[in-house]
């Protein structure tokens, strides 16, 4: 009976591992590529698909997990599961979300989310569930990663075509070159802000694989994919792309201080990005007005992309990459530290110049200045309950618009005239309003605990750094936040599997020493 029970438990474990692999493919490939054939209501289309598939997969996983636990208890196993620091932070975050939703005065919204946004308690719990599903069920299979990277390449190729004025998948059929959508929607992802959020998570795996990978063919493919992603962050139209690209490159260089090859590859990646931006600018000039119209007029502007210095900067970093492969490790480390310091100063200076050139007051950062002011004012004006647990998950709009004068919040001109903002365009200010001090602290603990636990896993740290930077100017959404929790779950899975393998090796060594 015990033997049959063990075999049944093993089959269930294999089934759940396969389900997890397929769900990984769903998040990285199916969800990113599926559009329903149009940009119209694309966010709703993707969210509904995500919600339905995720509820089924998590439901099956939970049901099978309960059965497995029952079998384990029947066999006399009374050991409590070991929880990591990230596990505990995730559970606390989920608990605070529940408390906030229960205390919210906005009835349905905190549970299912604000209309057309859907970041209510149900979604936040699904994110936490994705983390535990991946951390307990992923078996280290490579094929889901390969499928995800192939899908990412397709997303990037379509994005490049869009920025040159072409529409290979016919998503622009309802719009013309003068419409807002023509220049602000990109690939199969949606608008450029969503695209930045998507890249802030998905780029972590290929970049990490390239920087630390082995095998010429594999490293070459991941290099091309990494350069494509970084280039698109520079040309897609949103200023956020530069911040995400800087975070990605910066983390690669910092890790490279101790690993010369990682540093050298980071330099080669910078060179490839700069040279590809220059090639894109020349191609766009050759195509003409059609390509020019695909660049957002209110974004980074074509002049920055057509800057002649991209060629020179790319050439310099290419030479540096070659030199770092020839000098001694000690010299390379010293030179690397100097380059990182110079790079940090350059990025800080560029950021300062950008900030100073932004319009003062509420117009700062494409209107983020006003939104952030309203968010902070709404938090400060709240009572004790509001400050502690917030208005409820995804209740930013109902709370803010009922607390402050609506006329101050609603744009009166331009494309966004009459728009109701569903969030603060800053994940942390949004958390203060929606989840209060407890929820914001719990979310910060998730990031801090993950950094501590996964600090040696470069892909995981890249994801945390890029998503973290973007979180200060963006928001939770269906094409980035679920992938973040999946990535953290994959990191946890790897740590747990390495721990089990280490214990098994130690047990074998101990037996050999005893002569067993």
Describe this structure in words.
This protein has 516 residues and is mostly helical. It has 23 helices and 2 strands. It has helices at residues 2-33, 42-74, 85-103, 109-112, 121-137, 143-163, 180-184, 192-202, 204-212, 216-235, 240-256, 260-287, 289-292, 302-305, 309-324, 329-357, 364-381, 384-389, 396-403, 406-409, 427-453, 458-471, 481-514; strands at 185-186, 190-191. It has a two-stranded antiparallel sheet with strand order 1-2. A hairpin with a 3-residue loop joins strand 1 and strand 2 (190-191). The relative contact order is 0.13. The mean pLDDT is 89.
Topology of this structure?
Elements: H1 2-33, H2 42-74, H3 85-103, H4 109-112, H5 121-137, H6 143-163, H7 180-184, E1 185-186, E2 190-191, H8 192-202, H9 204-212, H10 216-235, H11 240-256, H12 260-287, H13 289-292, H14 302-305, H15 309-324, H16 329-357, H17 364-381, H18 384-389, H19 396-403, H20 406-409, H21 427-453, H22 458-471, H23 481-514
Helix pairs in contact: 1-2, 1-6, 2-5, 3-5, 3-21, 5-23, 6-10, 8-11, 8-22, 8-23, 9-10, 9-22, 10-11, 10-12, 11-12, 11-16, 11-22, 12-15, 17-19, 17-21, 21-22, 22-23
């Amino acid at each position: 009976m015990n033997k049959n029970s063990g075999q049944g438990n093993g089959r269930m474990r294999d089934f759940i591992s396969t389900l997890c692999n397929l769900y990984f493919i769903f998040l990285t490939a199916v969800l990113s590529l599926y559009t329903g054939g149009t940009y119209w209501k694309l966010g709703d289309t993707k969210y509904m698909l995500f919600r339905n598939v995720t509820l089924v997969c998590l439901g099956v996983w939970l049901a099978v997990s309960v059965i497995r636990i029952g079998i384990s208890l029947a066999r006399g196993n009374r050991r409590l599961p070991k929880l990591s620091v990230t596990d505990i932070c995730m559970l606390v975050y989920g608990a605070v979300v529940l408390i906030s939703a229960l205390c919210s005065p906005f009835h349905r919204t905190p549970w299912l989310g604000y209309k057309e946004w859907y970041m209510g308690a149900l979604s936040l719990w699904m994110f936490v569930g994705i983390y535990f599903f991946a951390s307990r069920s992923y078996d280290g299979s490579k094929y889901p990663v390969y499928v995800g990277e192939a899908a990412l390449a397709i997303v990037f190729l379509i994005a490049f075509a869009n920025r040159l004025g072409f529409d290979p998948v016919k998503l622009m059929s309802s719009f013309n070159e003068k419409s807002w959508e023509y220049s602000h929607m990109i690939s199969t992802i949606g608008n450029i802000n969503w695209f930045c959020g998507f890249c802030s998570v998905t780029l972590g795996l290929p970049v990490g694989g390239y920087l630390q990978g082995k095998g010429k063919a594999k490293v070459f493919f991941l290099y091309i994919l990494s350069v494509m992603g970084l280039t698109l962050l520079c040309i897609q139209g949103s200023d956020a792309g530069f911040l995400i690209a800087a975070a990605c490159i910066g983390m690669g260089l910092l890790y490279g201080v101790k690993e010369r090859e990682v540093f050298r590859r980071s330099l080669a990646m910078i060179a490839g990005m700069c040279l590809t931006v220059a090639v894109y600018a020349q191609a766009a000039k050759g195509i003409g007005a059609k390509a020019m119209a695909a660049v957002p007029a209110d974004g980074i502007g074509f002049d920055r992309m057509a800057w002649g210095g991209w060629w020179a900067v790319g050439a310099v970093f290419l030479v540096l990459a070659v030199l770092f492969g020839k000098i001694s490790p000690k010299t390379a480390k010293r030179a690397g530290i100097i380059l990182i310091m110079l790079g940090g100063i350059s990025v800080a200076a560029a950021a300062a110049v950008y900030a100073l050139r932004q319009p003062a007051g509420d117009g700062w950062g494409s209107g983020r200045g006003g939104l952030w002011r309203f968010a902070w004012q709404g938090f400060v004006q709240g009572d004790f309950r509001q400050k502690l647990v917030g208005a409820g998950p995804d209740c930013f709009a109902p709370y803010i618009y009922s607390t402050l004068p609506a006329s101050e919040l609603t744009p009166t001109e331009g494309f966004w005239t009459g728009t109701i903002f569903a969030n603060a365009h800053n994940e942390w200010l949004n958390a203060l309003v929606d989840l209060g001090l407890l929820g914001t602290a719990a979310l910060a603990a998730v990031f801090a605990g993950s950094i501590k636990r996964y600090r040696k896993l470069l892909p995981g740290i890249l994801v945390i750094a890029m998503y973290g930077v973007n979180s200060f100017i963006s928001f939770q959404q269906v094409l980035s936040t679920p992938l973040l929790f999946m990535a953290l779950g994959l990191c946890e899975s790897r740590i747990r599997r390495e721990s089990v393998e280490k214990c098994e090796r130690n047990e074998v060594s101990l037996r050999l020493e005893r002569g067993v």
